[in-house]
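# step 3/5: fold
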Amino acid sequence: MAMTLNIGSVKLTKWQLALILGTPLAIGLGTYAVKRWTAAPKGVDGEKKRPKAKIEKQAISLDGTAPDKELERNQKSAELGEKLSPLKEANNYKTEGNNCYRNGKYDEAIIFYDKAIDKCPKEHRTDMAIFYQNRAASYEMLKKWSKVKEDCTASLEFNPRYAKAYYRRARAHEATNDMNECLDDVTATCILEMFQNNTTIMFADRVLKETGRVDAEKGMRNRVAIVPSACFVNTYTRSFIADPLQTMEVPVPSESDAPTKGFLRAHRAFLKEKYEEIIPACTEEIESSEAEAQYKVEALLLRGTFHLLCGSYAESQQDFDAILANADADPNLRAYAYIKRAALFIQLDQREKGLADFDEAERLNPENPDVYHQRAQILLLLEQIEPALAEFEKAVRIAPDHAIAFVQKCYAEYRLSLLAGDQRRLESVMHTFQNAIDRFPSCVECYSLMAQVLADQQQFPQAQEYYEKAMKLAPTNPALIVHQAIMVLQWRGDIEMAVQLLNKAIEVDPKCELAYETLGTVEVQRAQLKRAVELFEKALLYAKSQAELVHVYSLRNAAVAQINVTKKLGIDMNSVSAMAQSGLMPQGVA
């Protein structure tokens, strides 16, 4: 297969949804960006300038007037005996205030802005908005946050589309930890600025992550356990090389035997994909007498595994802890309790505990390939590519015929060759991928990972061929369908086809978190914000890890904020998107 491999143009991100519409998006992986931002923000004088590294310390400019010249004109008018109009007199006070502000005399600046506000006729709404906003700037420098909020609110009463007042009030809300109000105000700023200001976008991104983190912590405490789909469980179990729960020999009862119970019933339910029966059957085994309980440790391991898959993390840890506290338990079962508890800790964002459990599992059995394979997958997720590759190599050395470990090692080599910028190594990796497919022609992961690599390389027609081959092997795998949808957006920008594919993914697996999340992101791009919120709420039901919850809550919060703001401002997000794409700015938004 002839192809051109491109190192420089590939941009891999932790969350593949950043590939939506082929644009690297800053806010919530597609939630805010309705137009790619290709230029640095401009200063008052129109010259491009780079945003400062620390947003907190970046001062917002005042109204952009040239104070010295304005004051000079007013002084000349006074010398000539001209009587200043109330508006001109108010602007004279404002100019004096601006000079004080720029010289760090904030209390004096406030006095002049007071005079400007008192003098200005209230029908001059734009000027009144500026005076209040400038006084808020002085209060901000004095960290009088309630005064900042009051003055920004007054400014917005005179000019409801004054982006600078929204931005300053957002910073005041952040200072007082009123993050939902902060999110609404920074969202209003983004919309009024047509998503053109990188500094505002970076601020919004920070606020979204914080609101997502807070909501995720609550969500983890209140989440309802949900039995996962058969496809999800199958993907999980296939990731193991020698899990004793899958390899152990269990007596198969004949039709004439009494009904099975306890672990034997649980294991039979596992094989028949009757997953809702597993936890009760394991509990029956665990709570039975020592004389009756032949598989108590196995039952703890299986129940702990399904508590983990259902998102019942406290219960899962209790079961794994019980195994590890039992010094008489089979060492292999204890090793897998460590491996699976490690995954649990990673899900809870307790990285150090997770990696320590992998070390304990390795100490128990250094020749267990799953120690290295599972640890490699975690390291790959954590963007530790080189250590991940070393772990994949250990797993493949012990289990050379395990297709998934082999092809995931290829993928880690691919990622590392990109990081190194090594074109020759990249070409060698692509040949290794093809060898993996030739060697393991029935392994769906070989085709799907090859397709993802080709899509990363923007070799879309070839990627589509491999996705089609993967789909023949696993026609009801929702993740394959979702990745195809993402590629269709990258490749052709065909939103309708992508939506069809994503709805198909949900149809084949109504519990597929990735499908709801991706479709929600697409609906945001189509300005269907209420529908997007519904989809994100669905995704939250099936999200498993703390990181996933933070991410999806951030997406949802961004969409909710856009609904709130556009309703308040009377703005249609469809028109915002269209104007942002064309570069037009509506009147009154300045």
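# step 4/5: annotate
The radius of gyration is 30 Å.
# step 5/5: archive (pending)
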